[in-house]
Write a structure and sequence with these properties.
The chain is α+β, with helices and mostly antiparallel strands. It contains three helices and four strands. Helix 1 (19-33) runs antiparallel to helix 3 (80-89). The longest helix has 15 residues, at 19-33. It is globular. 13% of the residues are buried.
């Protein structure tokens, strides 16, 4: 039997107020967390039409399997990088609102 090549991920639909600020902060966070991601990726995409739950950004964090995604989700919020990211994008001021999250396998 062949081992599955699927990856697990968590996706976020977001309402972002300051687009350039968010993109720069996300890219910086992604680069800073690369050493602990163990081959996982952090990806963002801009949603032009706001026709998906009124979101204007989509982000995806991938990992090799569900255990790796859980490990990443446990590590990321504890990092100093993530604390700086939250402050930079204004998450607590609701300049970035998380509309929904979904766990996916692809």
């Amino acid at each position: 039997m062949r081992k599955s090549q699927n990856k697990d991920a968590i996706q976020f639909l977001l309402d972002v107020k300051y687009l350039t600020q968010y993109e720069k902060a996300f890219q910086k966070l992604s680069e800073q967390l690369r050493p602990i991601s163990n081959g996982g990726e952090m990806i963002i995409a801009k949603i032009e039409e706001r026709n998906l739950m009124d979101a204007n950004y989509y982000s995806l964090i991938t990992a090799k399997n569900s255990q790796e995604i859980k490990s990443l989700l446990d590590k990321i919020p504890e990092s100093q990088y993530h604390k700086e990211y939250i402050e930079c994008v204004g998450l607590e001021k609701e300049d970035v609102k998380i509309i929904t999250t979904v766990n996916v396998e692809f």
